[in-house]
Amino acid sequence: MKSELYRFQERGIDFLRTRGRALLADEMGLGKTIQAIEASKGLNRVLIIAPKTIHRNWELELSEWNPGVPVMRIKGDRDRKLKIISEFEKGYLIINYEICRLTEQDNPY
Question: Across the chain, how many H-helices and E-strands are there?
């Protein structure tokens, strides 16, 4: 069930939206995921890099806070992962840190 945002979360969302790049370093449990989702609304493509253990949590939060937007998790061998990344056009793509280790030449991001 989607709840209301706190004032500090609204400030965090504004902070993220008004900068080209930003780091949201709130303490654990203060709603960084929700702030990131809210700040990313309206963007065509969003890349989420997170440990594999929380990918499902991201999917659940995205379905609650931004329903109807496509969400993809990458699975498969190296070539399949690279193919998915290169063809990704809309929505949220959730990857783990391991994928970031691909060579710069292979990684379109």
Answer: 5, 3
Residues 71 and 22 in one domain: no
Model confidence pTM above 0.85:
no
Torsion angle, alpha carbons of 19, 93, 59, 96, to 10: -90
Taking only the tens place, the pLDDT of each residue in 5-24 is: 999 999 999 999 999 889 99
**Digit-coded pLDDT (tens) for 24-57:** 999 999 999 999 999 999 999 999 999 999 999 9
Which structural domain range is residue 48 located in? Answer: 43-109
33-69 CB burial, b ≥16 within 10 A, e <16: bbbbbbbbeeeeebebeeeeeebeebbebbeebbeeb
Residues 106 and 67 in one domain: yes
Number of domains in the chain: 2
Does one domain contain both 56 and 70?
A: yes
Identify any residues that bridge with 93 across adjacent strands, giving them in sequence order.
Answer: 47, 72
